[in-house]
Amino acid sequence: AASHKPRMPKAKADPVIFEHLGDVYLERHEVERARESWERALSLDPDQPAVREKLNQLQPEMAIRDSARQE
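The structure corresponding to this sequence follows.
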């Protein structure tokens, strides 16, 4: 007898999930992944001033990291 597993419905991409994921990545010092998650959140919903602010605050941190990497 064939077993039928219930199918999970396809979830719609949620910008809030990507925002929170970015927060977790930043907390883990995974700056690039945080940036990517927040950019994904904005691509799904551009009207998110809090996410834009997080990205703006991230820019100086990324510049410091990049200059330290070059030394």
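The CA atoms of residues 23 and 34 lie 7 Å apart.
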